[in-house]
Amino acid sequence: MRKIHIFDTTLRDGEQSPGVNLNTREKVEIAHQLEKLGVDRMEAGFPAASPGDLAAVNAVARAVKNASVVGLSRSREADIDAVREALKGAADPCLHVFLATSPIHRKYKLKMEKHQVLEAAQSAIRYAKKYFSKIEFSLEDAGRTEADFRAEMVAMAIREGAYVVNIPDTVGYLNPEEYGAIFRHLKETVPGIEKVQLSAHCHDDLGMATANTLAAILNGADQIEGTINGIGERAGNTAIEEIAMALETRSDYFGAKTGLVLSEIARTSRLVSKLTGMNVPGNKAIVGANAFAHESGIHQDGMLKEKTTYEIMSPETVGFKESKLVLGKHSGRHAFREQLLELGYKLEEEQLNEAFAKFKDLADKKKEITDEDLLALLEERLPDAPEQYGLESLSFSFATEAAPKASVTVSVAGEGNRSAEAGGNGTVDSIYNAIDQAVGEEVTLVDYSIQAVTLGKDALGEVHVTMRQGETEVRGRGVSTDVLEASARAYIDALNRLAAERRLPGGRKGAEKVW
Ligand code: KIV
Ligand code: ZN
């Protein structure tokens, strides 16, 4: 079996999803989970984008011990220096430097001729070689680059000492046959190709990212790049869990495997979904809520007789367990701690106290508490700094014949409490209008969604909102047994993310648009 290295870019390309703004603590939390999942490399961010991004990459670099931590850089010395700074303290640092090579990018974006692109990339790798023993070079938009120039660029990167050469289908334009043929051509024609690892990096604009990545593996790719849940720019990146399970389930066909701990897939997916605020669609392969559900009578009958009639992999393999009723009002701290350990959470004393208080609060409102409820409580936002706003109290009135009305009191850091009352087009709208008035912020609600965490009338409701202020878009999440309270909490969470963005010079993702 060939080993395929997994390069996770959830924290970089994944974070480029519109509205996703992970703070440093959230990045570190996801990085720890990626370590448990067993990724070989993880790209933590783009340090030159902003001081905030540099600091977040540095925090990940210092926290991760069992995977190589990668920082992204354009082919510029200042960017490379920013990655050097960001990766200080990393156990196994790696620089990822890129330059676009396609005719469209050369002409319109870079305004450079082929020889200038080659020289710029060459001098960037040469400069980087003084400081990094591991360098990955990416030919941005390699998929739409002329075959001979692509091969010339790859040969140059090998001569200059790159460790990995990445061939991205940046705009998700290719089909599997074409993408696979690129890898075959490079393997067959480029001198010294055996000295580097060739990497596949696909985007999903035409829904072919997974198929294209598998085609690259069949044609010699040593590494694949992707994100958890397939999040990323536009339609997203290759979903790592899909590649892992395709290689596992069809090892007879691919003859290749990853080093991933497959049973950590479900937990990683859930954590990424919660902290990014990006819901996983029910029908998403491997990690969707319906991925292992059997609805039709014929299928259920087959499953009862023999699981393999309709199941090509088991939910347990990727870490899904049957939802259990675990705790209730009378459960004590010890049982609570044990249950968290079972779910993979080892909390410090102070965190445990905080979580236990939240659990008791929930147990007063909800009779039976399941694993999903506990996870929903634990995966609440982890602020980097004290929050700007807090929901102190909320009340509303609703009647079928009367206009709804809401009153809120919001705590504002350094100022105390502010209250406001407002009406609106429905109760949620009234609550949001009242919060707007209390905080005095001008924002636009771009998206609102609500779902139940578990079954039953007393289920926890989980609300996700996307909010915009000027150029900045953020997502917020709120959880409560009351959906209106969850709505208010999601809104306040998004407002806090906006406030955190404003505190950082250039924002967390950077004011400079680099692509
Ligand atoms: O899609 C892409 O080309 C990228 C590069 C920066 C590798 O993300
Ligand atoms: Zn990309």
UniProtKB/TrEMBL annotation:
<dbReference type="InterPro" id="IPR054691">
    <property type="entry name" value="LeuA/HCS_post-cat"/>
</dbReference>
<dbReference type="Pfam" id="PF00682">
    <property type="entry name" value="HMGL-like"/>
</dbReference>
<keyword id="KW-0479">Metal-binding</keyword>
<protein>
    <recommendedName>
        <fullName>2-isopropylmalate synthase</fullName>
        <ecNumber>2.3.3.13</ecNumber>
    </recommendedName>
</protein>
<keyword id="KW-0464">Manganese</keyword>
<keyword id="KW-0432">Leucine biosynthesis</keyword>
<dbReference type="InterPro" id="IPR050073">
    <property type="entry name" value="2-IPM_HCS-like"/>
</dbReference>
<dbReference type="InterPro" id="IPR013709">
    <property type="entry name" value="2-isopropylmalate_synth_dimer"/>
</dbReference>
<dbReference type="Pfam" id="PF22617">
    <property type="entry name" value="HCS_D2"/>
</dbReference>
<keyword id="KW-0808">Transferase</keyword>
<dbReference type="Pfam" id="PF08502">
    <property type="entry name" value="LeuA_dimer"/>
</dbReference>
<feature type="binding site">
    <location>
        <position position="201"/>
    </location>
    <ligand>
        <name>Mn(2+)</name>
    </ligand>
</feature>
<dbReference type="InterPro" id="IPR005671">
    <property type="entry name" value="LeuA_bact_synth"/>
</dbReference>
<dbReference type="InterPro" id="IPR036230">
    <property type="entry name" value="LeuA_allosteric_dom_sf"/>
</dbReference>
<dbReference type="InterPro" id="IPR002034">
    <property type="entry name" value="AIPM/Hcit_synth_CS"/>
</dbReference>
<comment type="similarity">
    <text>Belongs to the alpha-IPM synthase/homocitrate synthase family. LeuA type 1 subfamily.</text>
</comment>
<keyword id="KW-0963">Cytoplasm</keyword>
<keyword id="KW-0100">Branched-chain amino acid biosynthesis</keyword>
<feature type="domain" description="Pyruvate carboxyltransferase">
    <location>
        <begin position="4"/>
        <end position="266"/>
    </location>
</feature>
<feature type="region of interest" description="Regulatory domain">
    <location>
        <begin position="390"/>
        <end position="515"/>
    </location>
</feature>
<dbReference type="InterPro" id="IPR000891">
    <property type="entry name" value="PYR_CT"/>
</dbReference>
<feature type="binding site">
    <location>
        <position position="203"/>
    </location>
    <ligand>
        <name>Mn(2+)</name>
    </ligand>
</feature>
<dbReference type="InterPro" id="IPR013785">
    <property type="entry name" value="Aldolase_TIM"/>
</dbReference>
<keyword id="KW-0028">Amino-acid biosynthesis</keyword>
<feature type="binding site">
    <location>
        <position position="237"/>
    </location>
    <ligand>
        <name>Mn(2+)</name>
    </ligand>
</feature>
<feature type="binding site">
    <location>
        <position position="13"/>
    </location>
    <ligand>
        <name>Mn(2+)</name>
    </ligand>
</feature>
<comment type="pathway">
    <text>Amino-acid biosynthesis; L-leucine biosynthesis; L-leucine from 3-methyl-2-oxobutanoate: step 1/4.</text>
</comment>
<keyword id="KW-0175">Coiled coil</keyword>
<comment type="subunit">
    <text>Homodimer.</text>
</comment>
<feature type="coiled-coil region">
    <location>
        <begin position="345"/>
        <end position="372"/>
    </location>
</feature>
<comment type="function">
    <text>Catalyzes the condensation of the acetyl group of acetyl-CoA with 3-methyl-2-oxobutanoate (2-ketoisovalerate) to form 3-carboxy-3-hydroxy-4-methylpentanoate (2-isopropylmalate).</text>
</comment>
